[in-house]
Amino acid sequence: MRAFVMTELTGPSGGAEADVPEPVGAHPWADGERLLIDVHAAGVSFPDLLQTRGQYQHGSPPPYVAGGEAAGVVLEAPPGSGFRPGDRVASLTVWGALAERALGIPRYTVKLPDDFDFVSGAALYLNYATAWFSLHRVNFTKGEDVLVHGASGGVGTAAVQLVRALGGRPIAVVSTSDKARVVREAGAAEVVLSDEGWVAQVRELTGGLGVPVVVDPVGGDRFTDSLRCLDVGGRLAVVGFAAGEIPTVKVNRLLLRDLSVVGVALDPYVARFPEMARTLAAELERLAASGELRPLAGHVLPLASAREALELIDTRRAVGKVVVTIR
């Protein structure tokens, strides 16, 4: 089968399209449960880029097939999984999705609504699961303002849509006016530009109080300013470090204003509390079927351009989700 294979951990340039055998057995994360998917489209995200440089904690040694999530049709499903051949699904794969067939992880797989095409499906699971779990970790409640960094990216647009769908007010932080237009279309109630005194703007939008919640997939030098943007008792969800720098925090900032900083890492949480995977999947299926989630696939490329798909993320040119069509 055709696939995009990383042979060197040198970044996107270390991969190329090649013929590889079809996957055998079960995904290493699937506890022996074989879920084989005929892939129609694959999602590409920041963790995939990290893997190409050996910088991701869940990476696979080369040679490996890249691609962290797949949308397609089930070919084989384990008994009791709730899936059967012919189901249209979106599944987290961690690696292996940029191929004609891939192994999914049953607990991280959802059925697609009839009105979702496979491009939308490939943009669904990772981003919306991450955004939903972020809001869960900070105990988001209806009516709250949520400041979203990197709001024009895959996780960012997902967070904006979810906050609106769940009854909050999403405030988006983006770097350009073009990205501002994108996040407004995604449902942002307010948009601030990161190079135009965004901290002061957020304070003004909240009557000087600050926001109760920040969702931050960017990290870097924005982190301290994000703490300054929080209201007393505010909560910040650490989702990732797309800026490339892992920030540190002086904990007296947390003490003096009763702030909370929480990590967002789904797999260790599910390992300890397995019911979370079922709850999350049910919520994603419900919200997708309701029409409230409409994944933004800002870039759709063929398998032959999979390297370019990764480079879009590497150069921070990606808007919304980057999707690679397989068939």
TrEMBL record:
PROSITE patterns: QOR_ZETA_CRYSTAL (PS01162). Gene3D superfamilies: Medium-chain alcohol dehydrogenases, catalytic domain, NAD(P)-binding Rossmann-like Domain. GO terms for molecular function: oxidoreductase activity; zinc ion binding. Residues 11-324 form the Enoyl reductase (ER) domain. It comes from the Bacteria. Pfam families: ADH_N, ADH_zinc_N. This is NADPH:quinone reductase-like Zn-dependent oxidoreductase. It comes from Amycolatopsis thermoflava. The lineage of its organism: Bacteria, Bacillati, Actinomycetota, Actinomycetes, Pseudonocardiales.
